[in-house]
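Intended use. Records like the one below are meant for learning the mapping from a protein sequence to its folded structure. Do not use them to infer anything beyond what is encoded.
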Amino acid sequence: MEKHPILGRDSVLKAAIVCLERRFSYAGHKEHYGLLILLSIALAALLHNLSSGSLPTFDDTTYALISKTIVRTGDWLTMRWLGVPYFYAGKPPLGFWFTAVFYKFLGISEFTSRLSAAIHGIVGLVVVYFIGSLYSHRVGLIAGAFLLSFPDYFRLSQSAMLEIPLAVYISLSMLFYLLTFENQSTHWYWLSGISIGLAIMTKGLTGLLPLLVIGLFHLVQRQPRVLFTRTFALLLISVVSVALPWHLLQYAAWRSAFLTKYLFATLSWVAFDTLVPAQRSSPSFYLQTLYANDPIHLIIFLASLPLLVMLAIRKSRTSAFLLTYIMFVFILFTSFKTRMPWHIAPIFPGMALSSALFLSKLQDLRKAGPIVSLMLAAVFIYLMATLWKSDHWYLRGNPDLKRIVLDFKAKSSENDVLFSYGLQDAINTGPFYGDRKVVILTNSREDIRIQTRIGGDYLQAGLVQFVADEDDLIRFVCSTRDRHLIFPIEVYKDLSKKLQPLEAEIVAQKGPLVISHLSCDR
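Structure written out for the chain above:
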């Protein structure tokens, strides 16, 4: 008697684990020793320095602050940033849940803020290894080593961002779907769908990438009927069962506000328009960024594409699927109006697999093979040593801002508000590190336009205020009981010259930043 598809999920998982063990296990498990060594290196390298520096002031600290709010309020359903429902950027809660759990049991710190990305980064190596092992264990090992030594992947795995968890769930869905090519067992369809659901719960619509790739692949392969089979329906059911409940609960609670801001507006800003003019770039943005960050990996990847195309033409379904994925993701993200360096992260596992196929072929060359192997080992060691010592942006953040906020926290009370002028970075750092509300004061009409376009929630909450000029700034601050202002020191000096005498007491100063208290006697 067949088990109910939902109720039988535990047995599905157990059966899938057994199938995985059979598929990838051999006598003595000797083939997997290389993976264990790679994971040991990854564990040491990615956790190294994870607690150093401070969180970068926007995405990293935004996500950390949302997770901190979950712990503080006990509300695990509606994500809130600065006390306002976090709809406009279209981020579901899974990544925030992981970090909130770490906060609850291990405390709030840079280490626990970055821990989820690091763990997912290590899991991503395992997933890529098993996808590569569909060709050979050597391809799998090279793919894992390529991915770990890929600077963009490594650095994002030491961040508090959501890109690496997203890439891992997408890769998992690819692995399970590729396994259906060998065995039509329903287990793989269930697990592929669950992985897609987790990707959606990590970063919204971007998590649908695997479904789009699967559909395109079968259309290119002239197999559209596959998309209407019972097994594919099981995949869709598992996607919905994971991703839909939270979305329905949020829609029931917030109705049109959730639908318009979370779904339609976010899609519009990313795909069809650019919310922030500075985020506009040329269509070659991702190639330029990858080359600037690490030319070695990009050149190897580009050199590997002809081999992947040739394997796809020779009817290798795995290669055809991989090629479809790489091309679709690259073209899709390039076509979007908003392009940021980390947006392209879902393509990293595909780049690693394609490159591993090419490098494995080079190792098979009769005379040059041993030399190629030695060169690859030397380059891997060099890159890992460089990454180990690197003090990159995701680890460094803005330590001066962190220190001055902590100093202000020690000299102020819990209900004090800190106004920020000429320094938008403080909007997250103040409440995350200092437990103090920060209000942005701006004389930029463009800032107000952006806030209005995203629904005006932060304007209505009084978190962003427009001041026409320096005199208006002083009048506004002096009209409140909270008269603390944080500026870059150059802005403070300019104000002191323009508004002489500016009666202000310096409360704290760290590096290029200063916090002053206005006396408001002028």
